[in-house]
Structures
1.
Amino acid sequence: MTQHYELLYLVAATMTEEEVHKVREQVKRILTKYESKITLEESQGKKRLAYPVDKNHQGYYELLEFDLESAKLVELERELRLSNELLRHIVVKKTPKTAGKGLLKVTRVSAKPDLDLANQTPMTPKIASKPQPTAVEKKDDSSKPRLKLEDLDEKLDEILEGDIM
Amino acid sequence: MMNKQRNSNDILTKPKVCYFCLNNVQIIDYKDTQLLRKFLSSYSKIVPRKRSAVCSAHQRELANAIKRARVMALLPFTTK
Ligand SMILES: [Zn+2]
């Protein structure tokens, strides 16, 4: 069965642009060797690594999407693992093909007003018994949940830090 | 002053909703480190559901995404 996959790999930043380009070609050669059809190619650029990998603190991330006969995946992965230029790589199934960008991020707003209402109620019980706060109030809060999540994280970190140490 | 108190009270008592359900996210991308970092503690541990209010289905996906990101050195396994 043909599946759609996504490959992300990491190349050491000590390499020159040219060498990275070579690696890119080499990986593509491996992919085509297993008769995969590459549908997307994207260099994510040089990034700082979250932890040093083989003494590298920075690396180039390269992304590829491709269709592949799933039976051939094991062999392909083996070959990728054996190539020394790749510090890390990961192949995952990709369910919706990335045709253009931003396909997934469309439906956002609809659920919000009600939930904001729920957010407001606890500290002001009197309002809670009323069916609805004013429309203006709702609009002011529209950007809130996201901020609150960060606030919350920070505060809880503060609280918990005391506990752990 | 008043405002601050209100906020902290808010945090302790407010029944919250899963971030991913709220934003209608079906697939959590392991490459989206900016988002994933919000669900890491200051020691880079995965924040428990109790704290982040993420629903169990999304917490599973989230945990998988964070672990993938860690393997790729996009996120730390630990800090300090
Ligand atoms: Zn959820």
2.
Amino acid sequence: MLKLTCFPTFSHFAVDSHIIMSKRKARDAHLPVGECIKQVQQILRERFCERRLPDRLEGVEAQYKHLLELLRRTAIHGESNSVLIVGPRGAGKTTLLQCVLRDLQKEEKVQKNLLQVHLNGLLQTDDRIALKEITRQLHLENVVGDKVFGSFAENLAFLLEALKKGNRSSSCPVLFVLDEFDLFAHHKNQTLLYNLFDVSQSAQAPIAVVGVTCRLDVLELLEKRVKSRFSHRQIHLLSSLNFTQYLERVWTQLSLPDSFPDKKFAQEWNAGVKTLCEDKSVEEVLQRHFNSSKDFRSLHMLLMLCLSRVSVAKPTIKPADLLEASRMCFADTTANMLHGLSILELCLVIAMKHLNDVYEGEPFNLQMVHNEFKKFLHRKSNSMYNFEQPVVMKAFEHLQQLELIRPVDGSSAKVQREYQLMRLTLDHSQIMEALQKYPQCPTDIKQWAMSAFG
Amino acid sequence: MTALLQHPGYDEERLKGVAEKLPCREVQAGMLLSLMGQPHQYSYPSIFIYGHRASGKSHVMHVLMKELELSHATVSCVECVSIALLFEQVLLSFFGCDAASLLPRSPSLSDFVRVYRQQCSQSPAKQTRYIVMEKAELLRDTDASLLSALLRLQELVEDNVTVILLSEIAWDKFRPNTGCFEPLLLHFPDYSKSELQQILSQNVHPSYSAGFYSAYINILLGVFYSVCRDLRELRHLAALNFSKFCEPLAEGKVKETDTHKLWKHIEPHLKKAMQTVYLREVSSLQWEQMQQMEEEEAGALRGLSAHTHVELPYYSKFLLIAAYLASYNPARTDKRFFLKHHGKIRKTNFLKKNEKTSNHLLGPKPFPLDRLLAIFYSVVDSRVAPTASIFSQISSLVTLQLLAQVSHDDQLDAPKYKCAVSLDFICAIARTVNFDIVKYLYDFL
Ligand SMILES: Nc1ncnc2c1ncn2[C@@H]1O[C@H](COP(=O)(O)OP(=O)(O)OP(=O)(O)O)[C@@H](O)[C@H]1O
Ligand SMILES: Nc1ncnc2c1ncn2[C@@H]1O[C@H](COP(=O)(O)OP(=O)(O)O)[C@@H](O)[C@H]1O
Ligand SMILES: [Mg+2]
Ligand SMILES: [Mg+2]
């Protein structure tokens, strides 16, 4: 008989070290600040790096119940099913599924019964690889040996049949999780999807197929024959959070659990977080973040940046930390790159901007840009920036390397470099802002950039 | 400096060593360390470091990893021509060569993650492991899911591992269509002029004073800073030209402190270096030799690029001239230029309404073979070779990349050409056959 061990879904979530610790220590242990900060870092990092399942899911009770019920029916009654979990990135799709599985595993009947196969569209990039991985996760490599199969369907059927062996009359239910589900739709003929959905619909063997995706239009990616075999059950994770709830979430994400070894420190920390969230300037910053994204992931990034500024010397998060973290999150990366251009490169960018204005976004080549630049030098009778063509060419190529300009598609490699058509990937405001920040920008160049005509 | 010294979990002596090796990058290194946290704690799954060339990205990572003895794998995306190589290097650095040999022949990401997990369960990380990817922009050209997978490798392999991507291209240009795990972004700003001065001045020559060397760097930056801020390039230029700078000193003509005289002596040399060394038209070795034989042949210095060495047969020169004219003149002006008795026609007569842009801005236009031949026969006057040899010369011009053949799908039998040389080049060619090409160019009428 085959020994079936389930896929180790939760092994990666770090051991609850602080809880163990708290049991060992006396109730009201007092730890030195250094030790407390170490614990804070440890606990919060696990949270923000998303290595720990939350003890309690926030705001997705209905979805949780729905999914739990669905999977329980497969695990216990052997009902086949298929479902898609759809929601934006970092909204908690994977977490929802993992929590459901964690809680399902606690039920005794399920524990021995349910097999799991976890696939990820990023890893199993074609159906051959996926099938190999399925075989491996079901521990059937030896059973398959070097048998040759006529088709994918035959192979899959063999695998499911193999699970039946032993003294069971019916086979073990198998849960197939397909993370980044949309990527599987790009596989040739959607063979894997077709076969899984087909098995789930025709009840050949009890399986549940759970797809996880961030694409709302995912059904349109499915071929007709695949789509018709899918149950059309979808669980959506679209957040209807309001700002007050968002603030509350910031607070819960930052606060320490009751199990924290030093009770007094934890209380002070949590109180500190509360005051932080009530600060006017903090609220303003958070409002900005709320308006741009409500998911957990981007909040975690913001809070991670705050946390990194906590040290023994400064054992709390101050409003200034959050402001600084927010500034980093919202930094305009392109503007940052413009800051480091040489003055010649900057001049070329300005010339391109003028060409864009005059020719309404038509592409340009180096000759035209250089000509525009020379016109400026001529008007100013400025000889300081009179560079030879090859030097200008090198600057131009550097801009291309930085992808600040991009060759127009189809302008072939046969064209001389100075005539290759290009487009600027920057917009007007980015250039003007970069100019303001540019260290010691000569005034005549600033004026040139601001003038309406080249 | 203090920013760097307060990181519990790391040895203080070593931190001091790090601080010494990273002048002008203390803030960034401190920031990185605080994001990385203590060695046994989790670090953020992926960090994207961007900044201009030679802004110290690789240097900082290298110093941190080496000095603090962190478990890491540094992978250059230029050297990893296949993803198999990349996977191998990572497994090798973390788990030894046995692990790397577990990969099948052309491994998929799935294989990599499988082997990694298997190894990792045998020897779990006590400290964060780091994968540093140099020139990460190249990851975009490989398998589309590679970048996305690396960004969330921590989740995929369930290990305390952080992927650090280094690039000189902004993150916006990386993000896949359907999004991905967003890395933390860390900017390495370009070095300011004074920071460059400080870093470059560290390489002081042992037999000269620090003040003298620093004055030299100051002059060097004065010349090059407006075109080049690349520390690596500047350092190269500094090393190359220093002996020239010291010359008057050795001859006893000036004192170390007489900066103005020294400046006057070196400035023209540096300007010349910009034309040649900076553009890589000559190698550094050639430049050193040239400096030695300097005075004798100052004229031969310029333009050592391949083009100037091309020696063309007589007719080929005319063919090229004809091609240039055909590329840059509108076809309807051919009569004016090449018909012997055309009468007097001014430019305005065939100036079309919207024709403001010169053809020398737009680049060469394709032309058919018969037009080329017509112009050729009229410019070369009398002595003309048989047509067959003309055709073979055309094809050798194409081979030399002086002419470009433009293929049009709809006209398979009638190839078109473009002239692919610059105005300077064609003028030089024309001079050798005593042909005043400028007179025949519409743009210069
Ligand atoms: N309902 C919830 N309550 C508390 N925390 C949550 C909840 N949902 C998600 N989180 C937290 O948010 C983080 C991101 O969630 P998760 O990784 O599941 O997102 P995802 O939707 O799978 O993203 P992706 O599309 O990128 O895979 C996790 O750290 C998780 O702990
Ligand atoms: N702050 C610094 N102090 C000393 N040398 C530096 C510093 N920053 C960069 N360098 C040197 O400049 C060169 C280029 O830096 P590197 O880190 O390779 O740049 P990149 O950002 O392109 O990776 C290296 O040789 C390095 O030694
Ligand atoms: Mg997920
Ligand atoms: Mg580098």
